[in-house]
Write a structure and sequence with these properties.
The structure holds 3 protein chains of 3 kinds. Chain B is 74% helix and 2% strand. Chain B has 11 helices and 2 strands. Chain C starts with a helix and ends in a 5-residue tail after the last helix. Chain C has 14 helices and 4 strands. Classes of the chains: A alpha/beta, B mainly alpha, C mainly alpha. At the B-C interface, α4, α9 and α11 of B face α4, α5, α11 and α13 of C.
């Protein structure tokens, strides 16, 4: 059962082709990896799905319905959430507030009720708070609940961003390099978290650079290079695929 | 037909005044990602200062014109250093509000010092009109048009082909990254403000002979300059000039054929419409922010 | 019943406001009433700039729409005072929603220009529309009257305004702590993150503009009845910039800040009377210096708020 269907996706920025005719499917409740060397178009693809960008050609279907007609803020209502590569936290707000804001759209009573402080308004706040507290406990963030996120270390910030994304009980979670800047121990924990999410029925699309994490946690992987799909399959297949090796080897030579 | 042509040509002249101020706005925006609301008032104040200098020393007008730019430059640099630089790392809206504050300061400072009655300002050019494209145009207007195009060309070369100019563009795109690459963003901001202010004072000295010098001189001009810059896409120098020339011509035609009383309202209506439907201007395409 | 320190402070504040006019001259009552009128405008900017982070240098436009809307409702259509104020607010609020539309596509300096353009157009149209607004002659506004009883002097009017201000302050305070208000502030902190978290930017910005314009319109309506006469000159760029100055110096983050801002704008012309022409220079300097040294306004000196 395909949850997310990408077909013929292409996008160009000022003449630069970032994605070229990319197609693949993500099945329900799987952990799906999207990898490729730097500049391959992974984040760009994620941005297209989450509607930050609009592709020039192609289609994105979620449960059979096209997402291209949707706006950014409509996706969480459909059950789609994401995290960001460079973190987009509400920096001046506390950890708890960040997570509450991740659920606000679901629990809020409406502007009128909020202005007049009707019972539905207070109820909505309570429920959002309750949901936030649940997640803080699950992700081990309770001790930081009242702290401003900008004052916290990077690893904790990443957890907050994850918690915020989970606040609305999504069905599809798009993770943009959740292990970036982490040591092996922290990466392992990220992997465990992702597996736990899958146990809860969540489908995870993982954009990642950390090969160990990808290979250990993903069931199927698509590899992008220069905006095109060059391989698709399970970790073993991808690892051995010559074009994939060449693409990464090319990256290594560039770095050298 | 003759009348229409005349309106178009004088509209171009009008537009070229807006264009000079628009270039100032774009320079600062290109280099620092800040928009200086008080650009017009700085130009006006600088022009008043020049007039005072002229009255006090009686130096030849040509020399005054030459001095106008460096004087304006110094003024802009000082303002940047004292009022804007401290806000560079904070939320951009703070810098915006600061420039609005500067608008108030300069606007009313001029009124306070020099009063509210208009002053005559001498023109470099003779009052004999000349013929351009079959229409009559004053030499002052022709001069302004020429200066506008000349400044635009010079700035274009500066931003595209000089080290400092390219550094300025880099600094505006990503201040932190530019800093880390060894670019002195502080000096770049100061230079941008200096350049913009210098050009502004020159613009003021070209406008003043026509409109008479008073504290209100640049208020509407600034807004029209904004309109033109927005029309042309705020970060584009040639776009800003073209946009302003268009505004000048359209304004003139509207004023003559439809309504003189509402010509300002019309220009502002254009701003709102453009912002609603093509906020990147007629010539550029918006690129989203990278996340 | 235990009263916490915050409640005590609040009660003391309200009591102080209630007692303020006693013992003051007629002119003192006028100043107090003016303070509240301006405080309402500051409240409106608290919502738009403080919470939503949207700049407006054209709020005099909404102020004007409220003032003229209300005055015309009373003069031409015989609408009773309180309802007329509401009408003024609604008219302004409707235009607020309209102005929000370009605001959705642009921000920062573009938005400032759009709001400025809006206010100038309003001022110009009101000026030219002589048949309705009196144009150059101006428009007379009847004295406020509640349920048939005319509020003859500013002493009585002050208490009405106080009740109105407290009601509006209650609304904005509720908003500030509610999920809607916090969603608005989230949009200000990171529009991308907020939208990706399901918060609709369009809906919230339009709401912020409409509410802000409504409050400014209500203030304008009250202003008209206070002064007794409307002239389009009042609703100028200078007025818009004065509003911005007052809101910034008072503090955009609290209702108390709005009150401080209102007091500033009501008293400054008195205090700065000597400087006459330089008054606006001082306002400008205040804006510039505030941004550097006191970006959260005077109210921030009294609170150590941490969210």
């Amino acid at each position: 059962m395909s949850l997310l269907e990408i077909s013929g996706l292409s996008i160009a920025f000022a003449g630069l082709r970032a994605l070229e005719d990319v197609s693949f499917e993500v099945r329900e409740n799987e952990i799906f990896g999207l990898i490729g060397p730097n500049g391959a178009g992974k984040s760009t693809l994620l941005n297209c799905v989450s509607r930050l960008y609009t592709p020039t050609r192609g289609e994105i279907r979620y449960r059979g319905e096209s997402l291209l007609g949707r706006q950014i803020h409509e996706l969480p209502g459909l059950g789609i959430r994401r995290t960001f590569q460079n973190l987009e936290l509400f920096r001046d707000a506390s950890v708890r507030e960040n997570v509450i804001l991740g659920a606000a759209f679901r629990y809020r009573a409406g502007a009128g009720a909020d202005l007049l402080r009707l019972p539905s308004s207070a109820r909505g706040e309570r429920e959002a708070g309750r949901r936030a507290d649940e997640l803080l406990a699950t992700l081990g963030l309770r001790e930081h609940a009242a702290t401003r996120v900008s004052a916290l270390p990077y690893g904790i910030q990443k957890s907050v961003e994850m918690a915020r994304a989970l606040a609305s009980e999504p069905k599809l979670l798009l993770l943009d390099e959740p292990a970036a800047g982490m040591n092996p121990e922290e990466s392992r924990r990220v992997g465990a978290t992702i597996r736990a999410l899958r146990e809860q029925g969540i489908t995870v699309v993982l954009v990642e650079h950390d090969m160990r994490l990808v290979m250990s946690v993903c069931e199927r992987i698509v590899v992008l290079d220069h905006g095109e799909k060059i391989c698709e399959g399970d970790p073993a297949r991808v690892r051995a695929d010559p074009p994939v090796i060449a693409a990464y080897l090319g990256e290594e030579t560039e770095d050298a | 037909m003759d009348v229409a042509l005349q309106l178009v040509v004088s509209g171009l002249a009008l537009g070229s005044i807006y264009a000079l101020l628009a270039l100032s706005l774009v320079i600062i925006n290109k280099a620092t990602d800040v928009v200086n609301f008080s650009q017009g008032e700085m130009a006006m104040l600088g022009t008043f200062a020049c007039l005072a200098l002229l009255a006090a020393t009686g130096i030849p007008l040509v020399l005054l014109m030459v001095l106008a730019f460096p004087l304006g430059f110094a003024f802009g640099a000082i303002v940047e250093r004292l009022a804007i630089r401290p806000l560079a790392s904070g939320p951009p809206i703070n810098a915006l509000i600061a420039t609005i504050g500067l608008w108030l300061v300069f606007h009313h400072l001029a009124g306070w010092i020099w009063g509210y009655d208009p002053y005559r300002f001498p023109s470099l050019f003779s009052p004999e009109p000349v013929t351009l494209l079959g229409a009559r145009i004053s030499q002052n207007s022709l001069g302004t048009l020429g200066v506008s195009l000349g400044v635009m060309a010079a700035l274009y070369l500066f931003f595209e082909h000089t080290r400092l100019g390219i550094g300025m563009r880099a600094a505006s795109l990503n201040r932190r990254a530019a800093q880390l690459m060894g670019v002195n963003v502080g000096r770049i901001s100061m230079t941008a403000w200096g350049l913009a202010s210098g050009i502004g004072v020159v613009a003021g000295m070209l406008v003043a002979p026509v409109t008479f010098l008073d504290f209100e001189m640049m208020v509407i001009v600034l807004l029209k300059a904004f309109a033109g810059a927005i029309l042309g896409g705020f970060n584009s120098l040639p776009g800003a000039v073209i946009g302003c020339l268009v505004i000048g011509v359209v304004e003139n035609l509207f004023s003559a054929y439809i309504s003189n009383a509402f010509k300002d309202a019309f220009a502002f209506g254009i701003i709102v419409l453009v912002l609603m439907f093509r906020p990147a201007g007629l010539f550029t395409r918006i690129t989203g922010t990278k996340v | 019943m235990r009263i916490g320190p915050k409640a005590a402070l609040l009660s003391a504040g309200v009591l102080a406001l209630a007692l303020a006019p006693l013992g003051l001259s007629h002119y003192g009552h006028f100043i107090l009433a003016t303070t509240l009128v301006y405080a309402l405008v500051a409240l409106s900017l608290n919502v738009l700039l403080g919470m939503a982070g949207q700049i407006s240098i054209g709020h005099a436009g909404f102020w004007a729409l409220g003032a003229y809307g209300s005055a015309i409702a009373m003069q031409t259509f015989g609408v009773p005072f309180i309802l007329a104020i509401f009408v003024g607010g609604i008219v302004a609020g409707a235009f607020g929603a309209l102005v929000a539309l370009p605001a959705l596509r642009v921000s920062g300096h573009y938005l400032a220009i759009a709001t400025l353009a809006f206010a100038l157009v309003v001022q110009q149209v009101l000026f030219e529309w002589e048949s309705v607004t009196g144009g150059r002659q101006g428009l007379a506004v009847p004295r406020p009257s509640l349920f048939g009883v005319e509020l003859v002097n500013d002493f009585a009017y002050y208490y009405f305004l106080l009740a109105l201000f407290l009601a509006c302050a209650w609304l904005t305070r509720n908003l500030r702590f509610s999920l809607t208000g916090r969603s608005l502030m989230a949009l200000r902190m990171s529009a991308v993150a907020a939208q990706s978290a399901g918060i609709s930017r369009a809906r919230h910005i339009i709401f912020a503009f409409a509410l802000s314009a409504f409050l400014a319109g209500v203030s304008g309506a009250c202003y008209g009845s206070l002064i007794g006469r409307l002239s389009t000159e009042t609703f100028s760029l200078t007025a818009s910039l004065s509003f911005l100055t007052m809101a910034v110096i008072g503090g955009l983050g609290s209702e108390a800040g709005a009150l401080l801002g209102g007091a500033f704008l009501a008293l400054a012309p008195e205090v700065l009377r000597e400087l006459k022409d330089a008054q606006m220079v001082v306002y400008g300097l205040i804006l510039v210096l505030c941004m550097q040294f006191l970006p959260n306004g005077l109210a921030s000196l009294f609170s150590s708020r941490k969210r």
